[in-house]
Amino acid sequence: KHAGEVQKISRCYRKNPRLGEEVNGRVVVPALPWRAVLDWAQSEAQAGARLVVVDPLAQIDFSEGGRDEFRNQDAFAREAVALARTMRFHLLALVHLIKRGGQARQHLPTSDDFAGAASLSRLTHVNLIMSASDWSDVTVSRQEGGTEGVLSNREVAITKCRCGSGAGSRLAFALRSDNPRLQELGFLARGRR
Question: φ and ψ at 27, to 5 degrees?
Fold first, then answer.
């Protein structure tokens, strides 16, 4: 049913150097220097890509050059933003959240919870945090007014939106096992889950 879309995704996924290669019967996953990621993003943009996805950012080696990793992450973020603006493409970088324990786990994550240097969230235009959960009843707002109860198993929090008014909003989504697309259900009603 979705074979065409899966083939397109698969074609791009196979470009992932983190899949490793077999050497003498063992899978070897080479280091992936951050400058090589920028070079790859540039070549994809030159080939006509309008969206380049780096997934996940945590697998990139930021230890090169004798500088600490946070300085290299800062340089990567600045150069990635400049490259995307110059070559007119969008860069989507997936970042994991830091692990939180105790009482901190009860609070909704923010951009401050991104693993890595602060520049990874500071220099971006939009920060989204997606979370998965069991199916649950949530209340969403409707454009025409009022609210509605829906079943959701994904949530996207807009933690930063430089060119719009969406920051602080949360959206409910559904992801079903028989369809590889997220179904947007609406903005979560403020103060309600």
Answer: -85, 125
The number of helix segments (H) and strand segments (E) in the chain equals: 4, 8
Q: What stretch of H or E contains 169?
A: none
Structure tokens that stand for 38 in this block: 């920028």
Distance CA 175, CA 153 (A): 7
pLDDT tens digit sequence for 147-172? 999 999 999 999 888 887 888 899 99
* pTM, rounded to two decimals: 0.71
Can you read off the two tokens belonging to residue 23? 């050497």
Angle between helices 34-46 and 69-87 (to 10 degrees): 10
Q: Are 77 and 119 in contact (CB under 8 A)?
A: yes
Per the structure block, which two tokens stand in for 191?
Answer: 């103060």
